[in-house]
């Protein structure tokens, strides 16, 4: 049976400590007892953002004062085909006064979520585990020792996601550097992904691989790692990353960079237009640093990826 698609707005309420809110569906509802992100159907004449604000007022008794577009996913249940518009809700007024759920629960990313979860919400839990800042290494330019020192400083400051991109190092030096970087990142509970070289990632036990745009477009099936991402420069590349079920994409350049001289800069409006409505988190890239985190997330980015900006902030 073919079901009409139902538009749904869902809110990822985020506390200052990074915890997010889940609600358990009441006994008299479809999928009773399952856990979900709060929200509800988009009514005629409403935007998804307006629908979410209304639903959170009706369900939780809060007035949203700041939200951000984040992800959009589709899921086919037995009873309905739903398209869920997920927003990050970062500020609200009023105390939570639940009116529709059996229970509420706050969870931090990486903590075990209550079970059972609605199937459409499962991938969102993994996306919430993805740190908001990615540092991209440049050991071939600055030297291995200098890069490792900068990595240690950045990890001390809270960096937990690193992409090792070192085409300029010879294979032996690259592997030695990758092992040293991985030990430092894992000691802090972070994730390290290897650009392009899946064999190196497997040998050293890295957390995943990152595909450059040309490799992405030549890939037909998702590589067999827990974490896989890709660099993108167009909507077609972003949609291919989504079709492969990748965990994130990088999109840029937002500003002019020395890494890609002459490449047209997207600016925040251009970034927002290309990244809108995707089911995978998108990092903004290109001339950015930690100071750009708020405007990036307001434009729909999951966070920031940076080469020089990631390490300069740690000096």
From TrEMBL:
It comes from the Bacteria. The keyword Transferase does not apply. Pfam families: NUDIX_4 (PF14815), TMP-TENI (PF02581). The keyword DNA repair applies. InterPro entries: Aldolase_TIM (IPR013785), MutT-like (IPR047127), MutY_C (IPR029119), Nudix_hydrolase (IPR020476), NUDIX_hydrolase-like_dom_sf (IPR015797), NUDIX_hydrolase_CS (IPR020084), NUDIX_hydrolase_dom (IPR000086), ThiamineP_synth_sf (IPR036206). Residues 4-132 form the Nudix hydrolase domain. Its EC number is 3.6.1.55. GO terms for molecular function: 8-oxo-7,8-dihydrodeoxyguanosine triphosphate pyrophosphatase activity; 8-oxo-7,8-dihydroguanosine triphosphate pyrophosphatase activity; 8-oxo-dGDP phosphatase activity; 8-oxo-GDP phosphatase activity; metal ion binding. GO terms for biological process: DNA repair; DNA replication; thiamine biosynthetic process. It catalyses: 8-oxo-GTP + H2O = 8-oxo-GMP + diphosphate + H(+); 8-oxo-dGTP + H2O = 8-oxo-dGMP + diphosphate + H(+). Keywords: DNA damage, DNA repair, DNA replication, Hydrolase, Magnesium, Metal-binding, Mutator protein. CDD domains: NUDIX_MutT_NudA_like, TMP_TenI. Its cofactor is Mg(2+). Belongs to the Nudix hydrolase family. This is 8-oxo-dGTP diphosphatase.
